[in-house]
Write a structure and sequence with these properties.
This protein has 311 residues and is mainly α. The protein is built from 6 helices and 4 strands.
């Protein structure tokens, strides 16, 4: 039983504790993979929904350009428009057709990206199918609690959780290395029993002449041991002190430096996470305002299109 060095922690207990932390880190890594997969799938879905809407808008724009081309050709025939305007309309139609082609390619790319995340392989029937998103985008002004969002991110971000658990493992290593700097003092104890077996000789008065024999065997020894008639025990203490412990000192100092570096990196990561959350909140507010402005601009553009069509 160690009484000084290896009393509270030794190599075996260090490995057990670090093994538990490693298992927890594996669980955190799995959770991170699941969260990232869900986020990537969600983003791929909305990217496909956007690509489909953009493709429809491009086709509608092409139809309007073709209608304008027909109108200009009619105006040229009746002499109310210069032929140059027909050429401009034809160029616009060609540009809109390029936009339709590009939008269609973007739509197919977005669809393949989503399929890659939700199918099990190319033999899956969904791989050769066309995906039509059902859920539509709904925009609602929801206030963002920035402080709560930052607190949640600092507590649940998987990279921060991994960094903290890694530091816990480093603390265990530092504790073990610090313990190894102590002298060795061990308490050693043993306890056992004895058994005697075999033939027993009966000697005469001269102590040299055998006058009789009592038969016996190894079973007698086993029975005697089972009765604990002849117990024996030992108790001792061993003390040792290394003359020069530079290797252990260096290992302990290196672990402390690595721990401080990990602390600094953790604080830098926490600051980065807080900055990302703050920027995300600002981006949400900015995007909502741009959406409202775009909605108003679209309504005005539709009114202007109706006026032009009526004209």
């Amino acid at each position: 039983q160690p009484l000084w060095r290896n009393f509270r922690i030794d190599a075996t207990r260090q490995n057990i504790k670090i093994g538990r932390i490693t298992r927890e880190l594996t669980d955190v890594a799995l959770k991170s993979t699941i969260v990232n997969t869900q986020a990537n799938t969600r983003n791929a879905y909305w990217n496909l929904a956007y690509a489909i809407k953009a493709f429809d808008a491009a086709k509608q724009s092409l139809a309007l350009a073709e209608q304008l081309l027909q109108d200009n050709q009619t105006r040229v025939e009746v002499g109310t428009l210069a032929p140059m305007d027909v050429i401009s309309a034809q160029a616009e139609v060609a540009t809109r057709r390029q936009s339709v082609t590009s939008s269609e390619a973007t739509r197919r790319t977005a669809e393949n990206t989503l399929k890659r995340l939700i199918v099990g392989g190319t033999e899956d029937a969904l791989w050769n199918s066309t995906i039509e998103p059902v859920d539509l985008v709904t925009v609602a002004r929801t206030p963002v609690d920035l402080e709560a969002a930052i607190a949640t991110a600092l507590a649940q971000r998987t990279d921060l959780v991994q960094a903290r658990r890694t530091m816990d493992g480093t603390e265990i290593t530092i504790s073990y290395l610090k313990n190894q700097l102590k002298p060795q003092l061990d308490l050693v104890g043993t306890y056992g029993t004895r058994g005697l077996g075999g033939n027993t000789f009966i000697f005469g008065p001269d102590r040299t002449t055998v006058i009789g024999t009592v038969p016996g065997g190894w079973t007698d020894a086993v029975k005697m041991m089972g009765k604990f008639k002849y117990p024996n025990w030992t108790l001792q203490m061993n003390f040792s002190y290394p003359l020069g412990n530079s290797a252990a000192d260096v290992a302990h100092a290196r672990a402390r430096v690595q721990y401080k570096q990990a602390q600094t990196q953790l604080r830098a990561t926490e600051l980065q996470v807080a900055t990302e959350v703050t920027n995300a909140a600002l981006n949400v507010e900015s995007t909502l305002r741009r959406y409202e402005a775009a909605t108003a601009a679209r309504q005005l553009s539709e009114k202007r299109r109706e006026a032009e069509t009526s004209k």
